[in-house]
Design brief:
- This protein is mainly alpha-helical and about 290 residues long.
- Helices cover about 70% and strands about 0% of the residues.
- The protein contains 15 helices and no strands.
- α11 crosses α14.
- About 40% of the residues are buried.
């Protein structure tokens, strides 16, 4: 597929430093602070926001910037998306939906951008707030949102395809985050794989464990989900997810350092998602 708008690629630069500066600017914005007080939502401090952009989360907050650069655009033009994403996650971390939706929308109103772009980004943020798609995780939907918002700055006609890439990328992040946290969390696709091949009785037991709180239930769920047959199916599905994300990325943009950075991150996520042989325990899920 032809690339929409090819531009000279700027140097990779220090994304982390740039984002930290942008977040400090947001925190100092009096209009934002005034709006937040008016809606009884306390603005997060610089310290709280900056804690959201420390490694290994820094790549997550810079995702939109790198997507825009990979698509041939300017990292600077997509910086507001990374800031709004940081604000959204800061609000989401408070478990207050009003804060999660309100912080980026309030910041968006203060930006000096075209009205077309403002309307597009407003739609993207509001769609995320109202998304009732239970088949996709919050993380997957958030990456999809950031990807399409970034694409609006340089490749608007490719927006839907970047959205799909973001959703695939976010799904891999989901699996890697669960698998890398230790034995007390089960990657969502591993649980789904275990349920697919389990008997009705075992499937119901897995579902009950998933609904229970506490580390003992989480460990038991991971153990029961990690049968050899379930792991084999999970491995195939994870590799297919990775393959689709790689193909989507290759179709969206030509070779450049930013595409290479996204591809290397996809490969890292694949490795962090795979269930290791030592976790292949238990009997068949039949």
């Amino acid at each position: 597929m032809p690339i929409t708008e090819k531009r000279a690629q700027p140097p990779l630069g220090n994304f982390a430093r740039t984002l930290r500066i942008a977040v400090r600017c947001v925190d100092a914005d009096l209009r934002l602070a005034t709006g937040l007080r008016a809606t009884a939502v306390a603005p997060p401090s610089s310290t709280e926001l900056l804690s959201q952009v420390q490694p290994p989360l820094v790549f997550a907050r810079l995702f939109a910037v790198i997507v825009a650069a990979a698509a041939g655009g300017s990292p600077h033009d997509a910086m507001p998306v990374s800031v709004m994403s940081s604000l959204w996650w800061a609000g989401a971390a408070t478990r207050t939906s009003a804060a999660a939706a309100g912080l980026p929308l309030l910041h968006l109103r203060s930006l000096d951008i075209s009205e077309d772009l403002r309307r597009g980004w407003t739609t993207d943020l509001e769609d995320m707030a109202n998304d009732a798609d239970s088949k996709s995780s919050t993380r997957s939907n958030a990456y999809a949102r950031d990807a399409v918002m970034a694409a609006r700055t340089c490749a608007p006609s490719d927006g839907s395809r970047w959205r799909e890439f973001g959703k695939l990328y976010g799904s891999l992040v989901d699996q890697a985050a669960a698998n890398s946290s230790g034995t007390d969390r089960t990657p969502p696709l591993l649980l789904a794989s275990a349920c697919k091949i389990a008997s009705t009785h075992r499937r119901q037991h897995l579902i009950r464990l998933g609904e229970e709180a506490g580390s003992n239930a989480r460990i038991a769920l991971r153990d029961l989900s990690s049968t050899p047959d379930a792991v084999q199916l999970y491995d195939r599905e994870i590799r297919d997810l990775h393959s689709r994300a790689v193909s989507a990325l290759a179709d969206l943009c030509g070779p450049n350092p930013y595409r290479a950075l996204l591809r290397s991150r996809l490969d890292e996520l694949l490795q962090h998602s795979l269930v290791r042989p030592r976790e292949m325990i238990g009997s068949s899920g039949s």
